[in-house]
Design brief:
Elements lengths: L2 H27 L1 H8 L3 H4 L1 H20 L5 H19 L5 H11 L1 H17 L2 H11 L1 H21 L1 H22 L11 H8 L2 H21 L2 H7 L5 H29 L1 H21 L4 H29 L4 H28 L6 H28 L1
Helix pairs in contact: 1-7, 1-9, 1-10, 4-6, 4-7, 4-17, 5-6, 5-7, 5-10, 7-8, 7-17, 8-14, 8-16, 9-10, 9-14, 12-16, 12-17, 12-18, 14-15, 14-16, 15-16, 15-18, 16-17
């Protein structure tokens, strides 16, 4: 492929991640409207995030194994087309039970696209350019928070959640066409044997990196999945203010991801991951200490956003850099742990909300982040020992 062709393909994968990210976090932005429209409590509506996280969490590694022989263009474009169908049907769901079932099926696309887009970058580019390229395509996830999540929240508030799902279907279809037209034919990963998975699970550094993702994701989704509920019930925020706060969170996420892509070559992946996790923890502490104050909420989500998406993309890069030959399996498992973290966090947050313990959301989330930082330091220790051997 020429350099221009590579650039177009990366932009298409970037756009695909935006669509996937928007669809994954869409229920969180519409939680108040889904709850009112379908006659369920916010904690019950959180089941959409829990189910999505579980399906993606357990599905990502299995799907990576069974789809490795499929041409990357067909796989990635096809997963986006399936995403379009799922969201289109969700717009017509007659009740909450049907919506949950459709959610479980639709997010299969997310389990495929996110890890396989990162692995496909490894097939397209030389090793020295892969980390920055992976960070770049994951900026699409960040922009999903800047534009996708707050816009979805506004659309649901003023035009209904069904309209938001219908628009998602259209955008996913457009993205599928872009990927199909820009990605080259013939890109395929080697079949993932049992020995590949065994090598991942017996590599202590890879396992620690994956546990960092799990702990970080669990902490963040404990609170982030229910931000719109807190903004409405505690701050009394209008739909417009809620959208602005969500957009601020996403804008900080985009900034953090751009900074990660810009400085990863100079500062190193491990150091930047610690910075990202530390910034998230600081944001949670500010949220907790200023609970109920709108200015504190704005500052806290800006700090939190700086680290949230950059940490995810940096984790992917760290896996690829540590063991390039195992990247397809390890990146799939990392995506799996992101979504399992979503499920664990959403379930934890739902339990606290059901017990009317909104003030406990941030401190519980902070405990998960402290664990993630400790695991990151331990992974760095093992990596340093390996390099000395």
């Amino acid at each position: 492929m020429t350099q221009d062709s590579n650039r177009l393909a990366l932009w298409a994968l970037f756009a695909g991640n935006f669509i996937i990210g928007t669809g994954v976090i869409l229920p969180a932005g519409m939680l108040n409207d889904l709850s009112a429209g379908l006659g369920v409590s916010p904690a019950t509506a959180g089941l959409l995030m829990i189910v999505g996280g579980l399906v993606c969490g357990f599905g990502a590694p299995l799907l990576a194994m069974f789809t490795s022989r499929i041409d990357r263009r067909m796989l990635l474009a096809g997963s986006l087309a399936f995403y379009a169908v799922g969201h289109g049907l969700s717009a017509l769901a007659p009740d909450f039970t049907s919506l949950v079932a459709l959610r479980a099926a639709t997010v299969i696309s997310a389990a495929i696209f996110t890890p396989q887009a990162a692995a496909t970058v490894g097939l397209m580019l030389p090793p020295e350019k892969r980390a920055a390229a992976v960070a770049f395509i994951f900026i699409g996830w960040s922009i999903a928070s800047v534009a996708g999540m707050p816009c979805g929240s506004l659309i649901a508030a003023y035009a209904g959640w069904r309209t938001a799902y219908a628009l998602m279907a259209v955008l996913a279809l457009v993205s599928a066409v872009l990927v199909w037209r820009t990605l080259p034919r013939g890109l395929a990963l080697p079949p993932m044997s049992l020995s590949t998975w065994r090598a991942v699970f017996f590599d202590p550094v890879l396992i620690l990196i994956l546990l960092v993702t799990l702990a970080s994701g669990s902490g963040q989704f404990t609170l982030s999945g229910y931000l719109v509920v807190i903004y409405k019930e505690v701050l009394g925020a209008s739909p417009g203010v809620i959208a602005l706060l969500l957009a601020g969170f996403g804008l900080a996420g985009v900034t953090g991801n751009f900074l990660a892509a810009r400085f990863v070559g100079k500062l190193g992946v491990e150091r930047l991951i610690l910075c990202a996790l530390g910034t998230i923890l600081l944001g949670l502490i500010v949220f907790w200490s200023s609970f109920g104050i709108i200015a504190g909420a704005a500052i806290s989500v800006a700090l939190w956003g700086l680290g949230t998406f950059s940490s995810n993309s940096l984790q992917q890069s760290r896996l690829i850099v540590h063991a390039p030959a195992l990247a397809s399996a390890s990146v799939a498992l990392n995506t799996s742990t992101i979504y399992l973290g979503q499920a664990i966090g959403a379930a934890t947050g739902a339990r606290l909300i059901a017990n009317h313990e909104l003030t406990h959301l941030a401190p519980v989330a902070a405990v998960f982040l402290i664990i993630a930082i400790a695991l990151t330091l331990l992974a760095g220790h093992y990596t340093a020992r390996i390099r000395k051997i």
